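Title: Comparing notes on inverse folding

I've been comparing how different people in this forum approach sequence design from structure. To keep things fair, I'm posting one structure and asking everyone to reply with a full sequence. Here's the target:
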């Protein structure tokens, strides 16, 4: 279909770099100019208005290279081209509308480029649910973006006005996407294809996703107990609260980095309440007292620290705030009690010492003198309270059981739980629940770790090596996982919130094998198992996954677990539903059953372990390890979505912490082509990433040739922590 404007035919010459978070910046008040400079540009232009879905229309505006004379205009509405619809509008009015929206066309690149803007127009009235909504939905859009302009404050009322006047459409935008300029050599057919592709992409990202809430919301205040150890770990929590219009109050120990009343800290929280967080029987009373002393109302409370779940639930109960029952949290943090929700009789036990273990193993009951506890090997031994696979052992023979129990009971002074080892693919399953009903869930596959090997010893670790999204379990097995784990959550008392659950699929129809090129992935078994597929619980975490997993999930699916968790905590039921909508990449011509339509791509999260114990050095003091990798390996850089480096020069790192691997970084890579490409790319990132570790306790003359070790590690310069991540609170950054 011709648009009535001729351009020289040529090959499209446009960068294909996907948008990054640094590109997606909101317009500040300083960008609002009172008056547009007259005569700033003279460009032919046209516009097409497209009904994207029930919730949105978009207006694609194309500004062609400058002619130096009064320009003509044209309009196309849903495929019908109209050469006169906007021909009466002076060009200056459109320029003024862009100027009023913070976009100065007189300074936008060369006048010989083709400029492309997409104006997003909500089709309903309502109140802004999240002010950075379009940034969230347009993460990693596969078309080059200069900037996304968002104009509305959280909870602000928006009135839809689908005007026939183009400048009015610009002024009434919910957001404006400013795409990177196109070469003037682009042909009209190429331009049509570009518009069609980007409109289709927006349809996948925005259909069913609510920018506006129909009911006027109340501005609320939420307390976060334990304010996160540094900005890297907390940034996404603080950003979500700000975008939702939730005022954040931090409750933590004296001296926490957010306590100082600085302009930067005020960007992240409304107030800081210094409170003694010693984990004793009075800690809940002290937290409640601090919140009662605050002069403004508190509407909800939450924590992301496992060892404070029960405490925070008690505080919520004391203050009459929305929360799940204390008993549910008491069960979830005790791995023995949660195991009883799916118990194997006679094969699960809890002991506090090796002596108690020996007594239990020799105990019998009943007239037939059957053993009270008869473990079937292999078994898993782990602390009843703990995280990050610390002190977790796989025991394959009776003589190693006492050693594993001794190791587990050292951690946190905890008892040890002994339970069956369930052989089968391990996965992470995450849920958003409202009144026990699933609003959103997804599953990620965790490939085999050291302890999964058939010949694994008691010293082998269960520390994860990677995570692949979406899951490749058969669809029917994914449904078993979701229904089984949801039922367990409800059974122990959870009703509403975000939950991170780890499990294994027994009698699965798939298994991990080498599929070629070093890629280990799930493939159908040669012989189907005779037993029925069954999902077996490993542990329950009544919170979102740690930030290093929650953020990749947000990138992959468009769902922010931190936002959902906070809305649940303040009782915002309707808004909780609104933030639980994923992307929808269903295509009528897509016959593939391999990737969930909720995901925009295959993604592989790679955990980078410390290669040696020692002191961190940088091979290039001017580049972080991530940036150095991107410079050295641009073929990998184009697949890297995000990454976080945990170390700074001079930091000391260990190989293990309480039996779990110590990590120095994590990296997320993606592929829109295939899962195999995502895994292979992650493997190559792991091999290519370099960090220098000077091995300790060796003189220069006695250091081995491998004393300076290199290992993959990525760094996101926008997320650089002001404090060392490997501090005493690193355990709160668990998976």
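Reply #1:
Here's my take.
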């Amino acid at each position: 279909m011709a648009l009535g404007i001729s351009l020289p035919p040529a090959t499209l010459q446009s960068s294909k770099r996907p948008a990054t978070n640094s590109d997606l910046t909101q317009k500040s008040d300083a960008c609002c100019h009172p008056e547009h400079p007259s005569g700033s540009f003279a460009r032919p232009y046209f516009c097409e208005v497209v009904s994207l879905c029930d919730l949105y229309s978009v207006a694609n505006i194309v500004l062609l290279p400058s002619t130096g004379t009064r320009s003509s205009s044209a309009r196309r509405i849903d495929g019908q081209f109209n050469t006169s619809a906007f021909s009466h509008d002076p060009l200056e009015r459109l320029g003024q509308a862009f100027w009023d929206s913070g976009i100065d066309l007189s300074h936008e690149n060369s006048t010989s480029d083709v400029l492309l803007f997409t104006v997003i127009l909500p089709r309903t009235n309502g109140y802004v649910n999240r002010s950075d909504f379009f940034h969230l939905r347009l993460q990693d859009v596969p078309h080059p973006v200069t900037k996304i302009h968002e104009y509305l404050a959280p909870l602000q009322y928006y009135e839809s006005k689908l005007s026939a006047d183009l400048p009015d459409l610009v002024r009434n935008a919910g957001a404006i996407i400013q795409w990177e300029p196109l070469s003037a050599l682009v042909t009209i057919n190429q331009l049509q294809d570009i518009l069609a592709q980007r409109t289709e992409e927006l349809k996948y990202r925005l259909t069913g996703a609510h920018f506006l809430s129909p009911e006027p919301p109340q501005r609320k205040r939420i307390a976060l107990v334990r304010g996160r150890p540094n900005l890297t770990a907390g940034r996404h929590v603080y950003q979500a609260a700000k975008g939702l219009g939730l005022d954040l109050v931090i409750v933590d120990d004296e001296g926490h980095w957010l306590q100082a009343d600085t302009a930067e800290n005020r960007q992240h929280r409304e107030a800081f309440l210094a409170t003694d967080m010693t984990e004793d029987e009075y800690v809940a009373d002290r937290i409640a007292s601090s919140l009662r002393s605050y002069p403004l109302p508190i509407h909800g409370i939450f924590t992301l620290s496992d060892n404070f779940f029960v405490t925070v639930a008690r505080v919520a109960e004391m203050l009459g705030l929305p929360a799940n029952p204390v008993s549910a949290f008491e069960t979830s943090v005790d791995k023995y009690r949660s195991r009883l929700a799916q118990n194997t009789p006679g094969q699960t036990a809890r002991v506090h010492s090796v002596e108690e273990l020996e007594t239990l193993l020799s105990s019998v009951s009943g007239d037939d003198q059957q053993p009270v506890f008869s473990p079937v090997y292999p078994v898993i031994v782990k602390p009843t309270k703990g995280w990050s696979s610390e002190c977790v052992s796989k025991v394959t023979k009776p003589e190693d059981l006492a050693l594993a129990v001794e190791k587990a009971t050292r951690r946190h002074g905890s008892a040890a739980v002994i339970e069956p080892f369930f052989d089968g693919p391990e996965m992470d399953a995450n849920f958003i629940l409202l009144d026990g009903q699933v609003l959103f869930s997804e599953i990620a596959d965790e490939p085999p770790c050291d302890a999964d090997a058939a010949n694994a010893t008691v010293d082998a670790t269960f520390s994860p090596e990677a995570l692949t999204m979406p899951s490749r379990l058969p669809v029917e097995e994914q449904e078993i996982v979701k229904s089984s784990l949801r039922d367990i959550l409800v059974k122990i008392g959870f009703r509403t919130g975000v939950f991170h659950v780890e499990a294994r699929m027994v009698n699965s129809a798939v298994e991990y094998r080498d599929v070629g090129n070093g890629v280990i992935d799930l493939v159908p078994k040669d012989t189907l198992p005779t037993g029925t597929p069954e999902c077996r619980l490993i542990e329950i975490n009544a919170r979102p996954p740690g930030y290093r997993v929650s953020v990749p999930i947000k990138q992959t699916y468009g769902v922010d677990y931190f936002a959902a968790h906070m809305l649940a905590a303040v009782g915002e039921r309707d808004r909780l539903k609104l933030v639980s909508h994923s992307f929808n990449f269903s295509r009528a011509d897509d016959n593939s059953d391999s990737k969930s339509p909720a995901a925009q791509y295959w993604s592989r999260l790679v955990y980078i372990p410390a290669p040696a114990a020692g002191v961190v050095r940088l091979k290039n003091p001017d580049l972080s390890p991530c940036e150095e990798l991107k410079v050295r390996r641009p073929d990998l850089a184009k697949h890297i979505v995000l990454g976080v480096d945990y170390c700074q020069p001079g930091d000391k790192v260990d190989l293990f912490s309480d039996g779990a691997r110590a990590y120095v970084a994590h990296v997320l890579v993606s592929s829109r082509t295939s899962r195999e490409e995502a895994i292979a790319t992650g493997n190559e990132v792991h091999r290519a990433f370099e960090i220098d570790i000077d091995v300790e306790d060796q003189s220069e003359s006695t250091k081995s040739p491998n004393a300076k070790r290199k290992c993959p590690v990525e760094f996101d310069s926008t997320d650089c922590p002001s404090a060392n991540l490997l501090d005493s609170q690193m355990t709160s950054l668990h998976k």
